[in-house]
Amino acid sequence: MTSWTYHAVMDDILAQPIARLAEAIRRKTVSAVELMEIALSRHAMHGDRLNAYKFLDVEGAIRAARKADELLAHGVAPGPFHGIPISVKDIYGVEGFPTFAGTARQLPDAWSTDAWLVAQLRARGAIPIGKTHTVEFAFGAVGINPHWGTPWNPWDEKVHRIPGGSSSGAGVSLWEGSAFLALGSDTGGSIRIPAAMTGTVGHKLTWGRWPVDGVVPLSSTLDSVGGLTRSVEDAAYLFGAVDPAWGDPEAFLADIATTEITSLRITLPSCLIWDDCPSDISAQIYAALHDLGTAGVHQTDVDGTLLDEAFDHYKRSGIAGAECRDFLEQELPEWLDIVHPTVGHRLEAAIPLSDRAYVSAVEEHHRLMSVADQLFESGPLLVLPSTIITPPPVAELEDMDFYLKTNITALRPTCCISMLGLCAVTIPVGLDRAGMPVSLQLVAAAGADEALLTAALAVERALGTARERLGTPPCA
């Protein structure tokens, strides 16, 4: 290295945006092997306790980093993620990696080839280093996995608290420092909930914007793919690199970075989500909104009753359960007998897709999406909490009644956004009275991902990144 010493990079690695890391590799001020060694050393320091990964390919990661350096040495033009270590949720297919989807048994080899998003990132130079833990078949919001153990939320050094789910190891891998991008999936909040509970950023794209090919499905009606990142800037970099409308992260960042914070208008919807949000959580969100108002952001109100309707429909419709059970019956029937009761009880109650109740539920989902524009009559952005609970200790969730109550409460501010077909970004803003992360959720209309990321980046630059505003978790 010429401008960074090894230890300086290791000490400061979590503060470096992906764009800067990629530039450093491109300019050869740090090699891909050196960056990979730093990432793996972070895992060696914290991995046994944090338990982010179901599978970690240390030797393969080093080989891939060496190859990345060799390609640069031979003059091959690097992609925007050249040599960047990433983690992948264990419902994605990754060539040569086993897929368990959080279950007790490895899935057939058909699920061990690159999913669409993995292939896109690999083509841009990213190095998948391992598979992060997930809730079984991604069917749960709290993040526990009785088969393989639940990742440790790094914000509590003494108590094993939930990391959020279903992408339960994703945010943990980011704070661990072993990955600089963590792929997840979001059906009712499975990117946004773990991002919020671990103090990272989660972008739930508009449904259908990116293909879900190669990802073990939960709900064909609601599933979307994306990533958890250490900052909004990194989320925008990912979007610009992968989205077919862009394909150039630097150009996308340059395009959205000129937005003045004073041009933003955000709307607070009046709904029961705010009423049910604990005061120590809402206080952190209101403090952030006050800071944004001081910076010049205009704030208005709107009737948010539709959000409550969407939550009620998500809770009672059973769309995800019905579609998950149908997938298992058609593709993995043997797995129905080995699903843990935390997931199995809900699958047993799932209705068949031929049932009129299921058909009606999907029709109501489409109706709700068709009227979602009314939420944006006062402005293009909504703001909501990302979660309305402090992550509880894992041990308390052994009680099934408490588990079910916690699961639906965790979904409360996020699943309504999925049911309405909107896009959203979670942004860490503070810590609650237990010292756990609090995030606000910016929400935009379907298809407005560019505008959403533009606003989110301006908000982050006004408020500060998670590391700047929250500090560093005691276990990271």
Could you spell the SSE succession in H and E letters? HHHEHEHEHEHEEHHEHHEHHHHEHEEHH
Residue-averaged pLDDT: 96
Supply Rg: 21 Å
Distance between the termini: 25 Å
**Class per helix and strand makeup:** alpha/beta
Question: Can you count the beta strands?
Answer: 11
Please count the helical segments. 18
Helix content: 40-55%
Largest sheet: 11 strands, mixed
From the spread of the alpha carbons, the general shape counts as globular
Strand order of the largest sheet: 1-3-2-4-6-5-10-11-9-7-8
Taking pLDDT < 50 over at least 5 consecutive residues as the criterion, the unreliable ranges are none
- Strand fraction equals 5-15%
In words, what does this structure look like?
- The protein has helices at residues 6-12, 18-26, 32-50, 58-73, 116-123, 170-176, 192-198, 232-242, 249-256, 272-275, 279-295, 305-317, 319-331, 341-348, 356-370, 400-419, 449-463, 466-470; strands at residues 53-56, 85-89, 127-132, 182-186, 201-204, 224-229, 265-270, 298-303, 381-385, 423-431, 437-444.
- With 476 residues, it is of the alpha/beta class.
